[in-house]
Amino acid sequence: MNYIDIRSDTVTKPSKGMREAMFNAEVGDDVFGEDPTINKLQERCAGLTGKERALYVSSGCLGNQLSVKSHTQPGDEIILESESHIFNYETAAPSIISNVQVMTVVGENGIMQLDELKKFVRTKEYYFPRTRLICLENTHNRAGGVIQPIEYIKEISNFARENGIKLHMDGARIFNAYVETGITIKEYASYFDSISFCFSKGLGAPVGSIICGTNEFITIAHRWRKILGGGMRQAGILAAAALYALDNNIERLKEDNNKAKYFAKEISNLDWINLNPELVHTNIVVFSTSKFAKPDFIKIMKEKGVLISAGSFENLRAVFHLDVSMDEVKTAVEVIKNL
Ligand code: TLP
């Protein structure tokens, strides 16, 4: 069956143009720093984010974990929003790789309120762990693609800097925020010590993410990428896909956000769907249903040709991307309406 696959924007497949760019990529041994396409991508991303240096990594998880590792020492404490990807979906890696303790703060729709967050920052008593790092996720996956407001980011950034705490952005889907707000990646990044983003989600590349920060930060991350087995060789073939994505697939993310908004508005009219369309800022729709148990809903939808995924707790998740057309979105809506 030809499924309408809205489980995630990670399911996108490289287009013909992207494959051609990959085919034609100049490559070299990146462990020697000699892959021209990777070097080009890293320079481009450093420029894009206004940071000193960038490092190409195989996944969003690796990017986040290298960032945590590079900012912390064993025994430090890091603050994460309780629904964040780093806390929920990265196999407790901060405790394994960085030997840090995680303090979670319950946010409102993925946003940690500053007054609340401040309560969790440790004072300097010798017996407390040291609060070393705060991470924000923009857009926020489990909250349903919520955009962190810029004024709030500024406040957290000021607070973190005043208190000697590093700030990292898991910007896996930061471009979905950019096409909505018009706030450049450079501006977003300027409030953070490090930022990671993914090419393998809405941007449509098959593999890869990037982390950007100071020279010192990237030097540490580069070493740890090697320790963790993440040093790649002629991976310019993959970096070419990422460059193609930056050239061709950013502005079109607005279409994906619009598909999500349409889908959310339509299904929110059903009295057995719980969903606030106002909270659909970008390409992810998180909702729940009072009519079906969550596994049943996923199973029935699959039987009718639509793949959707499980979100947190009772939630279901639909994610819109370049490999799902507006007609397919309309079909998915009709399938739900007819259940
Ligand atoms: N998210 C995946 C799943 O892991 C849930 C998805 O389908 O959305 N940060 C954020 C905010 C993410 O959503 C993801 C992937 C990552 C990091 C990790 O990226 P990868 O999968 O490349 O390691």
The structure class reads alpha/beta
**Rg calculated over all Cα atoms:** 20 Å
Task: Report the average pLDDT across residues.
Answer: 98
Coarse morphology: globular
Set out the fold topology:
Elements: E1 4-5, H1 16-23, H2 36-49, E2 53-57, H3 60-71, E3 77-81, H4 85-88, H5 93-97, E4 101-105, H6 114-119, E5 131-137, H7 150-162, E6 166-170, H8 174-181, H9 185-190, E7 194-198, E8 209-213, H10 215-227, H11 236-248, H12 253-268, E9 273-274, E10 284-289, H13 294-303, E11 306-307, E12 309-310, E13 316-319, H14 326-337
Parallel strand pairs: 1-11, 3-4, 3-5, 5-6, 6-7
Antiparallel strand pairs: 2-8, 7-8, 9-10, 10-13, 12-13
The structure holds ligand TLP.
Ligand TLP binds near residues 59, 89, 137 and 200.
Architecture overview:
The chain starts with a strand and ends with a helix. The chain contains 14 helices and 13 strands. With 339 residues, it is an alpha/beta fold. The chain has helices at residues 16-23, 36-49, 60-71, 85-88, 93-97, 114-119, 150-162, 174-181, 185-190, 215-227, 236-248, 253-268, 294-303, 326-337, and strands spanning 4-5, 53-57, 77-81, 101-105, 131-137, 166-170, 194-198, 209-213, 273-274, 284-289, 306-307, 309-310, 316-319. Bound molecules: ligand TLP. Ligand TLP binds at residues 8, 10, 59-61, 64, 85, 89, 137, 141, 170, 172, 198, 200, 209.
